[in-house]
From TrEMBL:
Its EC number is 4.1.1.20. HAMAP family: LysA (MF_02120). It comes from Halalkalibacter nanhaiisediminis. Belongs to the Orn/Lys/Arg decarboxylase class-II family. LysA subfamily. Gene3D superfamilies: Alanine racemase, Lyase, Ornithine Decarboxylase, Chain A, domain 1. GO terms for molecular function: diaminopimelate decarboxylase activity; pyridoxal phosphate binding. It comes from the Bacteria. This is Diaminopimelate decarboxylase. Its cofactor is pyridoxal 5'-phosphate. The keyword Amino-acid biosynthesis applies. The lineage of its organism: Bacteria, Bacillati, Bacillota, Bacilli, Bacillales. Homodimer. It is an enzyme of class 4 (lyase). GO terms for biological process: lysine biosynthetic process via diaminopimelate. It holds the Pfam family Orn_DAP_Arg_deC.
Amino acid sequence: HGTSKINDFGHLEIGGIDTVELVAKYGTPLFVYDVALIRERASEFQQAFQAENVPYQVAYASKAFSCMAMFQLADELGLSLDVVSGGELYTAMQAGFPMNRIHFHGNNKSLAELEMAVDAKIGCVVVDNFYELRELSRICAERSYQMDILLRITPGVEAHTHDYISTGQEDSKFGFDLVSGQAHEAVQLAQADQNLHLLGVHSHIGSQIFETTGFVMAVEKMFELISEWRESYGFTPTVLNLGGGFGIRYIDGDTPLPVGEYVQKMIEVVKEKAAAMDLSMPEIWIEPGRSLVGDAGTTLYSIGSQKHIPNVRDYLAVDGGMSDNLRPALYQAQYEGVLANRANEETTETFSIAGKCCESGDMLIWDLPLPKANHEDILAVFCTGAYGYAMANNYNRIPRPAVVFVEDGEAFEVIKRESYEDLLRLDLPLAKKVTK
Ligand code: LLP
């Protein structure tokens, strides 16, 4: 997919570059991003809105993969940015990302983070709870600044891939709920507050979603709320943020829709609902993370040890694992992969791919069809671009991999490989007791 193909040497090539050469230059494990594919995904989302002539913002949910270069690319692509921490906001500042296109999320933003957001005059804060509403107002008042906000609503719709449920009692740590009257109380407080300018509402129903049904249910819930708010408080939103969660294809059985189709359906229902209420069309904002960067990322590993258990299984171990991809261990996530240096060869064997961490659960892929492989081979695991590097860690004091962007036959390193010295950067030696 994307610009990936098998070249004349039988090697996997991405962005016009031979992955075997990438490994020779940058080592393994290595995250490789197909920049053309990120561009394509961004434009698919944007075109879906433009085709319907609807005012919109597509905010990249940067938790999926954040670094300065990624933020600069997002800026170049005309995306807004959803950040969820001071660290992501700081990275955006250092990357020179326009502050007015930043949306700040999170269920427990610290006071320091809220101050940082107000001082930076970011585009909007998605207010999650009463504590935040109060503290943000105070921080704005101290600075004589009015901040644009959305209220995060727990829509009572939860979606996981193709299952979606309507949860009557909305048991979630995020947002103002619809059932106990929190959303109504919040809108009244926000409206009465001179320090806050309420743009509208936000809802997010889940992640890795393959159908439009959940989004339609969420739009319906939001419009019930909007209708009540208009009647009771004379408030009509100018922004409706419907969150992220658009699924991608990790393995053969995954059946996401083309990203534009989610958007089309959302627009259709919002138009219908707005017309029925005689409401002018709100701006629609979305926050895709995974669907912008997930399938653009590939991880390259060197293969090391093997273990053959007769009549049971063949293990093949790679030089990374749950330290660079937590998703299999955390969510039983599944991936596909190939031998990058022998991508044209027939897959005659079945290997289970183990990581190198001291933990039995550190398995990346079970039963992967491959050619006969050994320690000279490179394994490419596909679709690791979202929540891969982002959730990478130093378990077992394994340094985090390097990340390169590739496009049009050129590679750009965007995150350097961690060194052993980097691992010790914050360590302090044991303070010795002074004994006489
Ligand atoms: N907006 C909000 C408010 C969110 O909470 C999330 C994801 C997104 C947008 C972006 O969702 P996406 O388009 O990427 O599905 N670590 C998990 C995923 C956690 C998603 C958390 N929130 C994983 O690796 O599957």
